[in-house]
Amino acid sequence: MLDLATGRGTFLDYLLDTLEDVTLAVGIDSIYGAVEAAREDLEDITVAQMDAGAMGFPTASFDTVSIANSLHHLEDLVAAITEIRRVLRPGGRFILSEMFNEDQREAQQSHVMLHHWAAAIDRARGVYHDKTYTREELLVLISALDLHDVKTYNYTEMDADPLDPNKIAKLDQTIRRLMDLTSGLEDAELLQQKGEELRKRIHTVGLQSATQLLVIGYR
């Protein structure tokens, strides 16, 4: 199994606990810090620094390819999708898990807004980070893989209390940390204003994880 844009390896670790047919797993990420973090957190898993749009694996190398909450981080989606098709063997399984940005509850919309604000800060710093997609946009992107027997699911991990004080306190810390990153940026004042508006919103309606689209299909 290959997990793309693996980050700290949270989704890869979940799949390894869930799927019974994986005998070898590899994670890749283009960011060195993420690779180092995943290597610390994942035992007996190979994690490499690699661009999803130019992978160094032979054709038809993997029975399963997965990616979670990272399509909007890939600057060249065409190249990445082309590479996914190349390294996934015929009959192999593709798994996508990705949040979408519409039809969310109020507290879930706070999650979407926080993500989009963080993405705007990244872009201002010269880091590619697009907004999240709609559910239909995700399905159109995945259609380019020309999969069959595709199954789609919406799933939500609803927290017990969107206004849990401990969670709100941690979100305040996250917002302050992101605000610090705006120092010296051309749009710093506007970004900080949006951050403060978002902080007040979270204190009013709370925050819950946005609904995710899960796609499972075969090459």
Give a topology summary:
Blueprint: E1 2-4, H1 10-18, E2 26-29, H2 32-41, E3 46-49, E4 62-68, H3 77-87, E5 88-99, H4 106-124, H5 135-143, E6 148-155, H6 165-180, H7 188-205, E7 212-218
Parallel strand pairs: 1-2, 1-4, 2-3, 4-5
Antiparallel strand pairs: 5-7, 6-7
**Strand order of the biggest β-sheet:** 3-2-1-4-5-7-6
Q: Outline the biggest β-sheet.
A: 7 strands, mixed
Low-confidence stretches: none
Strand content: 15-25%
Number of strands: 7
- Which whole number gives the mean pLDDT? 95
**CATH architecture label name:** 3-Layer(aba) Sandwich
- According to CATH, the fold-level topology is Rossmann fold
Cα-based radius of gyration, to the nearest Å: 18 Å
User: Could you state the CATH homologous superfamily?
Assistant: Vaccinia Virus protein VP39
- Specify the overall morphology: globular
Overall number of structural domains? 1
Order of helices and strands: EHEHEEHEHHEHHE
Structural classification? alpha/beta
Q: Give the N-terminus to C-terminus distance in angstroms.
A: 14 Å
User: What is the CATH class designation?
Assistant: Alpha Beta
Helix % is 40-55%
* Count of DSSP-assigned helices: 7
Labels describing this entry:
single chain; alpha/beta; Rossmann fold; 7-stranded mixed sheet
Describe this structure in words.
- By secondary structure, the chain is α/β, with parallel strands linked by helices.
- It has helices at residues 10-18, 32-41, 77-87, 106-124, 135-143, 165-180, 188-205; strands at residues 2-4, 26-29, 46-49, 62-68, 88-99, 148-155, 212-218.
- Strands 3-2-1-4-5-7-6 form a seven-stranded mixed beta sheet.
- Helix 4 (106-124) runs antiparallel to helix 7 (188-205) and helix 6 packs antiparallel against helix 7.
- It is globular, with a radius of gyration of 18 Å.
